[in-house]
Amino acid sequence: MTDEHTPDEQHPDEHPDEPTQPLAGWRAGEPPRDASPSSDTPSAASEASDSPAEPADPEQARSVQPEGRPYGAPVPDARAADHEDAHGAEDDRAAREEVRDDGRDQVHESAPETLPIGPPPPYAGPGPVPGPSGFGPGPYPGPGFGQPGQPGPYGQHVSRPPVRRLPLWVWPSVAALALVVGLLGGLAGGAIQDQLASPPGTVDNGLQGVRTRAAAPLDADNGSVPAVAQALLPSTVQIVAEYDGQAGGATGSGFVLDREGHVVTNNHVVASAASDDGPIVVIDSDGRRHDATIVGRSSVYDLAVLDVDGADALEPAALGASQALHVGDPVVAFGAPLGLSQTVTSGIVSALDRPVTTSGESDDDSSYINAVQTDAAINPGNSGGPLVNLAGEVVGVNSAIATTGGASTEAGNIGVGFAIPIEQVRTTVDQILRTGRAEYPVIGAQVQTGGQPDAGGATITEVMPDTPADRAGLQKDDVIVAVDDQPVNDGIALIVAIRTHLPGETVEMSVLRGGDQQVVEVELDGKVG
Q: DSSP 3-state assignment of 122?
C-alpha cells in the first residue's frame, strides 16, 4: 500500500501541538532552528554573516522547509551547502528507500513527497479511530469519517458548512398554519359526527337545503280545473301504512316536496306505523311502489315528512300562500279518498283562520289548526293531500272534515273540510328537515276549551310556576280576549292563535282582570311535539 502526500498539503501551523516526525534525510546531532548558539561553536547563521558569499540558490534560501531537512532546521550557508554536496548522493539513496516496520511494503518516492512512517499522533476527534499504525493516515472506511465537522485524513480538516438560520417570521407562520389545520380538522370531525347523529333524511339547511319548485306551473288567472289536475296529479301520491299491527291498514295521501325524495302528509296517516315501526309504502301517479321512512312528525300540527326511496325522479309541487286567498276563491283538492287514487275534487274557500281541533288517541295527539275551510269534497283517504289554487300552487294540506258530531278525520264529507295553511306547513316541515322534530310555542298556562259558547274569551284555570305566563304576571281566572290583533273567543281560539307564532317570539295579550283590561307581553317558550 502506498500513501502519498505532497508538501503543499501539509499545514504545520494548523496543529502546533502535534508532534513532528522527521522527514527522510534527517541526521542526528543537527541543532534545531530555535536552539541557542553556544559560545564556542558558531552557528550556521553566524557563518553565513561572516562570509561574503551569497546562497547558491536564492529560492532555497527563502524556503521555509528545504528538502531533506528536519522541521525547524536552520537554512545552511554556502559552505554548509558544499558540505552537504559531499554527502548528497548517499542521503538521496537513503531517502528513496524506506522500509516499513513490518517489512512488507516499500515506498520508492523522493524525500519531499513522503510522510512519516511511524505511528500517527493520538486521535482525539469524534468518529472511528483511524486505521492501524504503519499504514499511513488513511482515509479508512467508517461511519462519519471525513464528514463535515469531523476529522478527515491526517493533516486535513473538512470544513463545516455554514448554518442557515430561518427568519423570525417563519415560526409565527408555522404556528398559525398549525392552528388553522387544527380548526379545520375539528370542524370536519364535528360535521361528520353531526351527520352521523342526524336522523335519516334530515337536511342541515331545512327547506333552503332542498330543491323545491319555485314557480307556479300555471298562470295566476288560469280558470281551468282540468289544467290544474294535469299539472298536480304527477306530484300527488297515495300512502299505505301499517295500522294497529295490520300492514296496509291505513291509507292516505301526500305530495312531493322536493327533488330529494321528501313527501309531506298528515301525522295521523303514519302515526300507528311510527309507533310499531311498521312498513310504509308510497304509490306514485304511475302506480309504482316505493318504500318510505319517517323523517319526523308533529302531532300538534298533524304533519309528517317521509323520505321515499326512488322518489327523487318525481316532480315536486309548487308551494303558494294561503294568506293570499280570499273567501270564495276556487280551490282543488287532490288525494285518494277511500283508497281511490288520483281523485280530484273542486270547490271554493269557505272561510279563513278557522280554529279547529282534532282529537287523537291521547291529548298529545290532538291538533289545533288555524284552518282554511273549503266545501271541496274531502273524505277519508284525502288526508295529507294538497289543496291547490288555480295557479297550481299548494295553499294547504287536507287534514279534517266536519261531521254532525264535530271535526273528524274519519267520517264522510258533508261539504265542510279543513286544510292546514301552507305557512304553518312551511314552518313545521323546515324544523323536521333540520332536526327530525318540530317545536310549538307554549305559555305555561291551562285554559278552558269547551262548554262555554259565549265565554267571550279564554279563561285561565292554572298558571305553572317559572313559565312565560308566570313571568308575565298572568293569574288564575284572567280572561284573555285577544292575541296581538287577533280576537280570542274561547280556549281553542287562544291555543290556535298562540301556535301561529314561533318559540322565542313575544306576543301582546289583552287580559280582563276584575273588570279592567290590560295588555301584557309574553315571551313564548317552546316544546317538542
A: coil
